[in-house]
Amino acid sequence: MALNDTRVRQLKPLGAASGEKYADERGLYLHVTATGKYWRLNYRFAGKQKTLALGVYPDVTLLKARAKRDEARTRLADGIDPGVAKREEKQSKSEAAANTFEKVARDWLAKTANKRAAITQAKVTSWLEKDVFPFIGKLPVSTIRAKDVLDRVARRMELRGIHESAHRIVQICSQVFRYAVAVGLVERDVTVDLRGALAAVEKTSYAAITEPRQVGQLLRSIHAYGGHPTAVAALQLTPLVFVRPGELRAAEWAEIDLDAAEWRIPASRMKMKVEHLVPLSRQAVEILRALHPFSGHGRYVFPSIRTGERCMSENTINAALRGMGYAKEVMTAHGFRATARTLMDEVLGERVDLIEHQLAHTVKDPNGRAYNRTAHLPARREMMQRWSDYLDKLRIGADVIPLSKARH
Question: Which one of 145, 282, 297, 361 is the catalytic residue?
Fold first, then answer.
């Protein structure tokens, strides 16, 4: 006679050491002991009698026990041992629980570290540790959904007003999920479903001064700046070489040949992952030679004031500009690139392709192929010297009449 809910609820252990068994249907029975009521299924597989545990009453009701029984019998019909299948599922869940988002993310960071500059690696790690791991880090990566990333990570950042960073964090999470797909931990990158869900980021250019007389005043302020020698040197060199701020502050003495007046920035530190050659003007070399007694014994040209083991902080040059009275809406460290791009083109009449080369932008030949790092090097050397000479004239207050581009 099949069991019913009332009888299952009322059954009590009768005192037998091994307990009592009450049959339901199709191999399902309830094993009642002094410690509880246990659902079991008897079945045969490959000629052997076996028993499968289906759960404990009342957590598993009679209805749920029968559903589990039917699922097991379906597997038997398909030639699958339900007991083995259950162990494999348990192991799979255990492995999934062990592969948390944080573990997978740290594996990804380690496996892809050679593709990023050390500074970028540290920054990405910091972002994850601050804005991601505390909120989804302990979740198995296979259980995370797009809504988890949106609500627990991106929305929190948007509420703090850092919309651009929220987009960057989602992009980083996307890379982690793609890695998880590659190693077989998840089926897809769930962040794909977040397209259009985040607040749009208004694209703005870095603030830059491009009017010659105002640039002259800025240069005079820079030369009057009385900060730490390394900060002063970095500030003075920035307009002469107009590389990206991160490339400048992480410069290493091993990259610079003062005798040859060249600075070769390795591909690992460049945004486009291509080695960049910066011809150094006479003025740039003088700045670096004067700085050498202060930092030449170490790795970095512009070491951190606190410790020589790290390079200068990313805020140093911008902080100096603020100290001189230039608000972030007026001038930024990155803005020196726009200053050079504008004045070299519109005032000095330099060839645009040479300027783009020196900005480390991709410039292609007539066949559509990217020029190599030494392309037009003699012409770029001359251009960089003209640029430094022009800045000197602006600094002393000379009026410089725009040149005709025709001379090039």
Answer: 361
